[in-house]
């Protein structure tokens, strides 16, 4: 049984079908890059897996549990699957430490002292132990995104979904965030990441999934997908002919 299984997942917004039957199985410890043009459905797929969108048909399971559209299931699911976005969405009035503690104390009802200890540990993991008391506006974009990663990790997820997490960063700040992701991958975290960092995808990911018009159009090992794209659409996306 795979950690994440999507079976014939379809998603429509009104009359527009955005996901047209997605079958994707993710094994524990896999690091998958999802690539594709803007509008191909990448974010929608991640949002469906995290229960932020309700699917129109098909099924999704995480760690053997079917994703059902009710509050109890969704809450349990979000504890297992963390998500990190392009925008860091930190609370500006809370310190880095406070941001990492918040979902633990609110969602998991973790006692404050334990949440703080976990927050310190997770901030250390992303190289920011010295920034526990800093407010978001005192941090660079790269540091803020690393706090967002620490916040997701504090929930002890079994998988992390990353949606273009370096796209809002100045170029010189991208590497520090990717370095953290690279480390998580090396530690065995299951990662499903939408990314434009092809070099990173090639170096770190075990599988690349190319989405086109709401379908998985081509997928495989990075060395195959990048060196020998099969379809005209992927060739065009990669800029090779
Ligand atoms: P990607 O992340 O690959 O750029 P998205 O999943 O964001 O693609 O979007 C896929 C398509 O779904 C786009 O055409 C987009 O306009 C549409 N879409 C996404 N979210 C919504 C929504 N909440 N309501 C209506 N249309 C949406
Ligand atoms: Mg997107």
Automatic annotation (TrEMBL):
Organism superkingdom: Bacteria
Membrane topology: Peripheral membrane protein
Compartment(s) of residence: Cell membrane
Pfam families: ABC_tran (PF00005)
Molecular function in Gene Ontology: ATP binding
Main location: membrane
Keywords in alphabetical order: Amino-acid transport, ATP-binding, Cell membrane, Membrane, Nucleotide-binding, Transport
Domain ABC transporter residues, every copy: 4-238
Family according to the record: Belongs to the ABC transporter superfamily.
Name the UniProt record assigns to this protein: Amino acid ABC transporter ATP-binding protein
Lineage: Bacteria, Pseudomonadati, Pseudomonadota, Alphaproteobacteria, Hyphomicrobiales
């Amino acid at each position: 049984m795979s950690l994440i299984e999507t079976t014939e997942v379809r998603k429509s917004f009104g009359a527009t079908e955005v996901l047209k039957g997605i079958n994707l199985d993710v094994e524990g410890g896999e690091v998958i890059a999802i690539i594709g043009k803007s509008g191909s459905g990448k974010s929608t797929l991640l949002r469906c897996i995290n229960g932020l969108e309700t699917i129109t048909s098909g099924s999704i399971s995480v760690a053997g549990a079917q994703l059902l559209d009710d509050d109890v299931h969704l809450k349990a699911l979000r504890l297992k699957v963390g998500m990190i976005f392009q925008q860091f969405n930190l609370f500006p009035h809370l310190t880095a430490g406070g941001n990492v503690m918040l979902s633990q104390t609110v969602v998991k009802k973790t006692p404050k002292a334990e949440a703080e200890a976990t927050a310190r540990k997770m901030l250390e993991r992303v190289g920011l132990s010295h920034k526990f008391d800093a407010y978001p506006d005192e941090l660079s974009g790269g540091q803020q995104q690393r706090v967002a990663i620490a916040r997701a990790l504090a929930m002890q997820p079994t998988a992390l979904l990353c949606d273009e997490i370096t796209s809002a960063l100045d170029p010189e700040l991208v590497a520090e965030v990717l370095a953290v992701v690279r480390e998580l991958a090396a530690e065995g975290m299951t990662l499903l990441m939408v990314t434009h960092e092809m070099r990173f995808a090639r170096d770190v990911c075990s599988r690349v999934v190319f989405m086109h018009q709401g379908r998985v159009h081509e997928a495989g090992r990075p060395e195959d997908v990048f060196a020998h794209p099969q379809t005209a659409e992927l060739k065009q996306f990669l800029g090779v002919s």
